[in-house]
């Protein structure tokens, strides 16, 4: 039985290596920023992970966790906005109900005692009128 056609151990493919070779052939590695210049001393300080983070950051790469952090922040802001909108909708409904009561009040009280309807913008003044 030949092991060369074993499905559990397929032949090794260096996809990234192949992509880089093809990119280099097409001139993609020519004229890179900093080509031929010595690396700054800060690239030689710290550990390997810090090097990776610094180089990746300089190249504009964001790690997965940072992308998630931004997505979560944006989602929480959206939830808060919806929450505020729902609260505003509830306030509008309560103001509408208050105005219905004001209309009923105005129909049953003497004309000089009638009062105007309320809105979010004039509710502070309306409180004084209803004391």
TrEMBL record:
Residues 20-76 form the DnaJ homologue subfamily C member 28 conserved domain. InterPro entries: DnaJ_homolog_subfam-C_membr-28. Pfam families: DJC28_CD. This is DnaJ homologue subfamily C member 28 conserved domain-containing protein. It comes from the Bacteria. It comes from Sporosarcina psychrophila (Bacillus psychrophilus).
